[in-house]
Amino acid sequence: MVYCTKCGTENEDDVKACVNCRAPLFPERSIKERNREERPRGGCFGLPNSGAIAGLVFGVLINLFGITSLLGWEIN
What we know:
Elements lengths: L1 E2 L6 E2 L19 H8 L11 H22 L5
Antiparallel strand pairs: 1-2
């Protein structure tokens, strides 16, 4: 048996709306919930946390460039 969340009436398992107040017993998910479930879980290039990985790689490259400039090294 399914109880209506609006009026508390007891309903059969196979009905979609309350027999008393006609409120839906099993409302459809909202569009926001459906979009959240359908969104792919991976990040950029299919890697998790790829934004952090890309930031780390670019940060290391910038630091290496700065260190080589400070020390006067040339990269050919």
